[in-house]
């Protein structure tokens, strides 16, 4: 397993381009199952999760061609000949569950392995199943698979009341509702930018959707959808991650393609901590106003609140802040595994239940640390950029799931970072 070696090397200066959003691309790709005409995605990120979703769609008989080095995904599912998503692929990435709704909507039946949990929590899919049942689907759970059927071969419109916000369940329901007979209303729907991006793509395919971006989405089902070409929205989590690099190291970095509107709550927290964010015609310029940022308190919430996917990275910044910060993780039950690794670097963190209390220290020290999940891995790299000496982050396969060319992007702004290939 490869590792990444990063050595604290002072302020960072220059430009970092932001790629297309992993979490948008992973819900856009299953949309190809809704039509037998070609769907092409541009601005796609080159990530291992995208390759996993590609393999899953191909296992169902869909064609997926990665063009221009993977930035363009040309897809077509006219050859769909298998309605079973196998455990050996689904277990690698829980977003695989997003093929359930589209397959059910298109052909009236689907068999999808239950994804299983992951490092950050149990992550059940009960809300996905309940939403599809509200559209008439019959679900039979046996031998680790969901066997789903739509009576008469077609879903019907219904009212879906989510008990709490779920991004994935909203996406599965939205995908399925486009072809259901009649009107579907999703209540307490997720409002993330990736949901709006999915709705924009589905509308380009001929779907009738209103209210995306609010907590109530209304879909008028249609009989068929056409092909389309759609650009994947910019990755707000990659954006936020790299905004933290000059905040923790000093210097000034411009994030190309960054849009503040995708991360308002996060930007306000950074400004509260003493970071200056300037909107430019190329993106966002970020620098800290003084030698040390101030400690600020964070609570993770569904959009438009502070994103849970930036909690680990913000914790790295708070480890070097002036003062005591509390970070409350309200979305996942076990998303503080980066804390013990940061403590190995001299951070002072107390974790009690869903709250971490961080007492900032003047200087972190480099150390060998281990990545435990995607966002934890990059928080350790951020800490290593600011630490004195060398930090070796092992198990960087986690990183490859969600960040393309980390070494290249950070080296370009002056970071001392390299990837160590290990057999
Ligand atoms: C999406 O996961 C993202 N993944 C996650 O990003 C992100 O952290 C999460 O949304 C929250 O923003 C993708 O988009 C591929 P949820 P998802 O359903 O859809 C519970 C990353 O780092 N829940 O909004 O799985 C669940 O356990 C990843 O890029 C149920 O109980 O998140 C969690 O506690 C990590 N039953 C909470 O709801 C369900 O049926 C929110 O989960 C579904 C979810």
Structure description:
With 423 residues, the protein is α/β, with parallel strands linked by helices. It folds into 2 domains: 203 residues, Alpha-beta prism (UDP-n-acetylglucosamine1-carboxyvinyl-transferase, Chain); 210 residues, UDP-n-acetylglucosamine1-carboxyvinyl-transferase, Chain (Alpha-beta prism), CATH 3.65.10.10. It is built from 14 helices and 24 strands. The strands form 6 sheets. The protein has a 4-stranded mixed sheet. Helix 5 runs parallel beside helix 6 and helix 6 runs parallel beside helix 7. The site of ligand EPZ has 21 residues, from helix 1, helix 5, helix 6 and helix 12.
CATH architecture of the largest domain: Alpha-beta prism
The low-confidence runs, each spanning 5 or more residues with pLDDT under 50, are: none
Largest sheet: 4 strands, mixed
What percent of residues adopt helix (DSSP H or I)? 25-40%
The oligomeric state of the chains shown is single chain
Task: Offer a concise description of the structure.
The protein has 423 residues and is an alpha/beta fold. The chain has 14 helices and 24 strands. The structure holds ligand EPZ.
């Amino acid at each position: 397993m490869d590792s990444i070696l990063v050595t604290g090397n002072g302020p960072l200066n220059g430009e970092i381009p932001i790629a297309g959003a992993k979490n948008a691309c992973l819900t856009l790709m299953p949309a190809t199952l809704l039509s037998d005409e070609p769907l092409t995605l541009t601005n796609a990120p080159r990530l291992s999760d995208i390759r996993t979703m590609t393999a899953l769609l191909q296992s169902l008989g869909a064609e997926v061609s990665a063009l221009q080095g993977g930035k363009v995904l040309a897809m077509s599912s006219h050859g769909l000949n298998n309605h079973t998503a196998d455990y050996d692929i689904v277990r690698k990435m829980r977003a695989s569950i997003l093929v359930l709704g589209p397959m059910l909507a298109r052909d009236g039946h689907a068999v999808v392995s239950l994804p299983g949990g992951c490092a950050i929590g149990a992550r059940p899919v009960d809300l996905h199943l309940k939403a599809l049942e509200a559209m008439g689907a019959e679900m039979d759970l046996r031998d680790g698979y969901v066997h789903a059927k739509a009576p008469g071969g077609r879903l019907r419109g219904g009212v879906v009341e989510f008990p709490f916000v779920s991004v994935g369940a909203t996406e599965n329901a939205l995908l399925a509702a486009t072809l259901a007979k009649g009107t579907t209303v999703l209540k307490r729907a997720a409002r993330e930018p990736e949901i709006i991006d999915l709705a924009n793509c589905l509308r380009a395919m001929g779907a009738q959707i209103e209210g995306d971006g609010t907590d109530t989405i209304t879909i008028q089902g249609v009989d068929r959808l056409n092909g389309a070409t759609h650009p994947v929205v910019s990755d707000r989590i990659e954006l936020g991650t790299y905004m933290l690099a000059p905040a923790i190291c000093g210097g000034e970095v411009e994030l190309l393609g960054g849009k503040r509107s995708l991360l308002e709550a996060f930007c306000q927290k950074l400004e509260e901590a003493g970071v200056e964010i300037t909107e430019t015609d190329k993106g966002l310029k970020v620098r800290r106003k003084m030698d040390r940022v101030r400690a600020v308190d964070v609570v993770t919430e569904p959009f438009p609140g502070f994103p849970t996917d930036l909690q680990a990275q913000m914790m790295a910044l708070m480890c070097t802040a002036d003062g005591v910060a509390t970070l409350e993780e309200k979305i996942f039950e076990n998303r503080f595994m980066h804390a013990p690794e940061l403590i190995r670097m001299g951070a002072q963190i107390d974790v009690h239940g869903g709250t971490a209390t961080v007492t900032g220290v003047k200087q972190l020290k480099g150390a060998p640390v281990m990545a435990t999940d995607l966002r934890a891995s990059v928080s350790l790299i951020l800490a290593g950029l600011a630490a004195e000496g060398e930090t070796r982050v092992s198990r960087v396969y986690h990183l490859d799931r969600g960040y393309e060319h980390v070494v290249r992007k950070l080296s370009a702004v002056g970071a001392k970072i390299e990837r160590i290939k290990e057999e």
